[in-house]
Write a structure and sequence with these properties.
Layout lengths: L8 E5 L5 E5 L2 H15 L13 E2 H8 L3 H13 L3 E7 L8 E6 L6 E7 L2 E7 L5 E8 L15 H15 L7 E6 L10 E2 L4 E2 L4 H9 L2 E6 H12 L6 E6 L3 E7 L2 E2 L1 E2 L2 E2 L24 H4 L1 H12 L6 H9 L3 H24 L4 E5 L6 H15 L9 E4 L8 H12 L7
Parallel strand pairs: 6-9, 9-12, 13-18, 18-19
Antiparallel strand pairs: 1-2, 3-5, 4-5, 6-7, 7-8, 10-11, 13-14, 14-15, 16-17
Length: 418
């Protein structure tokens, strides 16, 4: 209802299927529309640096608003310097040329850090998702085994953030700092990564914020990978992304958004136990999928199987693709374990499009076809013939990409640009 003196009301459906009325002020509605204009004038979900712009008429058509309303919103964004006019495009109906609008690439920059086993991978993104700088900041750590955890000193752990932000200086307009981290992440940023063997130091987020004066946002690494997939395939909206590399994790996307069960994540497939009398895990449980299907676990087992102590993961993958019989049998057994975990996940989250990413993709289509065959034999009758298994478009190489785009689309406050 947009009547005079009355606030607009919207009927929203929650994830549980319940419907609830939400009252928005005109200022709330204005911010929503400005965010939509900002995203469209940036080139949509997957912008590119050579995006030439969008006209007011095109914005009006896509937003379903009146032309005067769109013009008023655009004029304010132009006045604030958020949008810029890039030139004119000839009209197809012999009318006046259309002025094109776009977001300035240098309007803002976002530093994103991804935690890896030996340090932080860093990318600085501009307003179009272009990488301006890229670095790797290693940290020293003691040798560790499969049952112990390392808790680094807060100054040592946070040194890469402080160093990179200091080097950027005043050359860039930084909005926030983004961290892509493994494992469950609590509200205060605390996390434990069993496969990396790391426990976050106490209050490290507050430490970074105090030293840099920037807000810090955290996201699970597998969720970042999962979100990125739909940026390359707009037809995707409901799927599970399974990342198999140093560890095993998953991100669940429902209706285009990361699905969580606060305060915990919903995709800890790596810690589904497929053998309650199995191998001990740093998480305290036994038989976790991660202890059988991670890169290190596969290499360790194959070294014993082939009596080759120098075998590495790349050699393992090449030998499997080339048809080494022992490896074909071994990888087939591990594919069955993955199918067991996926079946368990389907029972809790009936999203049956599974995307596989990470180092495991080096096993190639041969592994994917093996997995599909095992799945058809194991899967519940309810899902037979209804599942889809594919490899990641990005192969799970860099979670900073999904982390950045999730932030800009769902978390960034446009008023922070004013």
């Amino acid at each position: 209802d947009f009547g005079k003196g009355r606030k607009p009301r919207f009927l929203c459906e929650t994830m549980t299927g319940n419907k609830t009325a939400v009252t928005l002020s005109r200022e709330d509605l204005k911010r929503i529309h400005q965010k939509q204009i900002f995203l469209l004038a940036r080139g949509g979900h997957l912008p590119c640096a050579d995006f030439i712009g969008i006209s007011r008429a095109e914005l009006t058509a896509q937003l379903g608003l009146s032309f005067p309303s769109v013009s008023a919103l655009v004029d304010e964004l132009l006045e604030k310097g958020i949008l810029e006019e890039t030139g004119e495009l000839e009209s197809s109906d012999r009318g006046r040329p259309r002025k094109l609008l776009r977001v300035s690439p240098s309007l803002f920059h976002v530093p994103v850090f991804e935690l890896k086993s030996d340090g932080f991978h860093f990318c600085l993104y501009d307003a179009y998702g272009g990488i301006v700088r890229k670095e790797f900041y290693p940290f020293s750590r003691p040798n560790y085994d499969t049952c112990t955890l390392w808790e680094p000193d807060v100054a040592e752990f946070c040194a890469p953030f402080l160093k990179s932000i200091s080097e950027l200086g005043d050359s860039y307009r930084l909005l926030d700092i983004l961290l892509s981290l493994p494992g469950n992440i609590k509200e205060n940023g605390a996390f434990t990564s069993s496969y990396l063997g790391i426990v976050s130091p106490p209050d490290f987020l507050q430490y970074i914020e105090q030293k840099t004066t920037l807000n810090v946002h955290t996201i699970n690494r597998s969720d970042s990978f999962a979100y990125a997939e739909q940026l390359y395939d707009p037809s995707l909206s409901d799927y599970v992304y399974v990342h198999i590399s140093d560890g095993v994790g998953a991100g669940i996307i429902r209706e285009g958004q990361i699905f969580t069960c606060e305060p915990w994540r919903a995709g800890e497939i790596g810690h589904l136990s497929i053998d309650y009398n199995g191998r001990p895990c740093r998480c305290g449980s036994r038989g976790c999928l991660e202890r059988y299907l991670s890169k290190d676990a596969l290499v360790e087992d194959c070294r014993l199987l082939l009596a080759d102590p120098l075998l590495d993961f790349a050699s393992l993958c090449r030998s499997y693709v080339n048809g080494q019989p022992q490896l074909e049998s071994f990888i087939g057994e591990r594919a069955e374990l993955l199918c067991t975990a996926l079946n368990n996940m389907f029972a809790m989250h009936p999203v049956t499009h599974v995307i596989i990413g990470g180092s495991i993709t080096l096993l190639g289509d041969k592994f994917l076809n093996c997995l599909k065959g095992k799945m058809e034999k194991q899967i519940s009758r309810m899902y037979k013939g209804k599942t889809a298994l594919t490899f990641s478009k990005r192969l799970g190489n860099d979670s900073t990409f999904g982390c950045y785009h999730n932030y800009v689309t769902n978390q960034m406050k446009i008023e922070s640009l004013f």
